[in-house]
User: What shape does this take?
Amino acid sequence: MSITQTGQPQVTVARRSWGDEEVFHREMETIFRHSWQYVAHESEIPEPGDYVVRKMGRDPVIVVRDENGDVRVHLNTCRHRGVPLCRADSGNTSHFRCSYHGWTYANTGELRGVTYQADVYGKGGLDKKTLPLFSPAQVDSELGLIFATWDPEAPTLREYLGDILWYLESIIGKHPEGMEVVGTPVRNIVRANWKTEGENLSGDGYHTTVTHASAFDLGLFATTKDLVKLADEVAPKFTGRTVTTPEGHSMRVQRLPLKGLKGNHYFGYPKDMWPAFDERLSPPQQDLMSCLSVGHGSVFPNMSFIENFKTNVDGPDLHARYFRITVRYPIDATTSEQLWFFLVPKGADPEWARLSRLAYLRTNGPSGLFEIDDTENFVGISEASVGDVSRNLPIVLEGGKHHPDASAELGWPGHVVEGDKTERTIRNFHRRWAEIVDLESAEAGTR
Amino acid sequence: MSAEVVGSRSEVRRPRLGDAILVSEISQFLAYESELLDDRRWHEWMDIVADDFTYQVPTPRTPDSPFKPHYDDRSLLIDESKWSMSTQWFRRFDADIYETAWGENPPVRFRHLVTNVRVRLTDDPDVYEVRSNVALVGTRQSDPPKYITGERTDRIVRRDGELVLARRWVVLDQVVIDFPQLRILL
Assistant: This one.
């Protein structure tokens, strides 16, 4: 996987990673069988019986709050003949009944009813206790984010999230009552490999000025004209840092180039929300969130998050911040399904929440102009990865290797490096990806 | 929810629908509006749109009951105004910007097919609630065409004798949307 000729890239990935079905199947067996995966937000299922249907890899799962208030995750398939139990995207039920022969399960997953049991299986011929719904080995949540894994040997969710949790706490935990998902997530098909958008969101600050050049022209990035109204002094350049963790998670933190401000400034939120942030965030977390332009990252393998300050979203000087979570389900090597979750702080002022929604939808929402420009690149990567020559060619991922380490002085967890335009978060994803997928031994084993 | 059992009388009153001349005028207006969109004649399109125009598309979903809507209006897929469309959508096609409007250059080719136009009269003789079915075909580069269908509810108003589009609300039929891009004016 690495090319070590003098002057050649030292870390690279073969392009077939984004288009080859064999690599894809290996990913399904390794990454999606063992990783913790984001399935839902607790606010989507507030009441007992509330459920949503999601996927872990290519397997549909039901995420349900049982009658005791505990969150359960079940494979959406009857133990009898495999028919899906839920055919709707969401709903509320104390029991799931199969449409084929009527086997019925409590929302805890226990098999409660087998129709004509004595007739069909004889007395004592079938022990219902041995036939609960198949469920992931571990289910847990942090900050309202529900994750699950099939691997009983996987570390705990807290261990798995590692240092990225501190950053998610800064974003979500700064709100006294947490955040909630607004409505049903949008779902769409992307003609691209499941990894490409996550690689970008892992911390690619390098693409912004080119891919999103038109957004600068349209005023959706804070320009000097906007910034002079926020502070007395404006520095010439935005600055940024990236964070990486051994588990393959990462984040990019870009700051507004403002100087001479006293105290913390959480631009894009109503000012009456700021004191609560100061109270809830530690000084290094305040340093992270104050004057934040954009903070985005990826949780390995397929979830990404972004908190973003957007200017002029519904007219001049109407600025707002939004928070979005996306997740990508693999379908095949060049096709994925993306889910889009827009979240707001619980109890947020409705007029601000409307502006936040517009800031999201018009830029990084499914119909937003950033997104359609980005998607062309993601689709293009998969299109260009399936040629017989191109599939084995390398890419270049060397950006940011010379950037200075900032971990020690900042007090932020993880490996923090100065530099906004970098490829180190993508290298970090692929380092972890290669460790898990281990293509070389897989291929050696089949020879 | 107004499904009728044969032989029984529905409780729901039939709406007051426009006469043939009005329906013809409004159908012609909608066909002309589609022509402007498909030809990307944005400036002419904005001339037939009210200044307070809004365009919203709620999120499609599969509900757990036939008595619930197959969309969720708490979350939106698209939420635009005339201002946002002129400054953030159509502006991208201007000569000084289009070269970096990557998602729309080369442009996806769109074709609107608008049918089943129903003109509901309102208490204001100059305001019509117009429902229609829309199919949008989108073709990106050399890819096979994709289509998406839905039902529009438009508010069309007569100002100084001319029809203008004041509001558009579109309920989609696809839950997992498979279309070249989602920046679409249905």
Observations:
- The interface with chain A takes residues 57, 59, 61-65, 72-81, 83-84, 87-89, 91-92, 96-97, 100-104, 143, 175-179, 181-184 of chain B (CB under 8 Å).
